[in-house]
Amino acid sequence: MKLHWSPRSPFVRKVMIAAHELGLADRITCVRTVVATTRPHAELMEENPLSKIPTLVLDDGTVLYDSPVICEYLDSLHAGRKLIPADGKERMVALRRQALGDGFLDFLLLLRNERERAHPSDVHLATFTTKRKAALVALEREAQALAASPFTIGHIAIGCALSYLDFRFGHEDWRAEHPRTAGWHREFAARPSVRATEPIDDS
Ligand SMILES: N[C@@H](CCC(=O)N[C@@H](CS)C(=O)NCC(=O)O)C(=O)O
Questions:
Q1: Hey, whose CA ends up nearest to atom 2 of ligand 1?
Q2: Closest ligand 1 atom, CA of 10?
Q3: In 4-53, which residue ranges form alpha helices assigned H by DSSP?
Q4: Which of 135, 151, 148 is nearest to 100 (CA)?
Q5: 108 with 169: CB under 8 angstroms?
Q6: Measuring CA to CA, which residue among 64, 66, 65, 83 is closest to residue 24?
Q7: Fewer CB atoms < 10 Å away: N or C end of the chain?
Q8: How far apart are CA 163 and CA 156, in angstroms?
């Protein structure tokens, strides 16, 4: 399998953490693909018209995106304990947590893009900042339940969002006001799959 990959992308990291957790990482060939919101990537768009990574190309040419779809595919390749529970309340909780982590990441990326514009929009900056605060408050309420429940795709998505805060917003200390989330993230960061996928700013 070929994965359009970057060491900076938190969504790619999510896929690679899942692959490591499932013992599938060595079946994936990572191809460095540089994407940017303002520069459509013509070659990548032949496989993914959204011009986004992660994009996974299977050996038979089938193309999969985005990260939830790729993670679901990887989870189908093994017979062990699933990252995405098959049914019931556990499945809904895991998928909702994945949506929280992914959505948190979406507006962190938007916030970063906005900050880098020549003339950032105050209303956009304020809105993304409000949502970031709200996501952290919601996570602090959920941190104990997260710690107490079996590891799922939801844990991976939330962990990737918090790690991205450290990677790109490192000067903003989120831990002081969110101690339970910080404690959970410490455990997450110690997992071998997470350590094997540390982001690198090679720009
Ligand atoms: N919902 C997508 C989001 C992927 C995404 O936003 N990836 C970023 C890199 S971290 C990207 O490709 N950005 C390029 C662009 O927005 O054109 C997923 O879960 O895979």
A1: 66
A2: 10
A3: 10-21, 42-45
A4: 135
A5: yes
A6: 83
A7: C
A8: 10
H/E stretch holding 193 reads helix 192-195
Which residues have a Cβ under 8 Å from the Cβ of 54 and sit 6 or more positions away? 3, 4, 5, 9, 11, 12, 14, 15, 65, 66, 67, 70
Ligand 1 atom with minimal separation from the 54 CA: 20
CA of 148 to the centre of ligand 1 (A): 30
Cα of 110 from ligand 1 centre, angstroms = 11
- Stretches where the chain sits below pLDDT 70 are none
- With a 6 Å cutoff on the Cβ, whether 161 touches ligand 1 is no
What are the pLDDT digits (tens) for 101-128?
A: 999 999 999 999 999 999 999 999 999 9
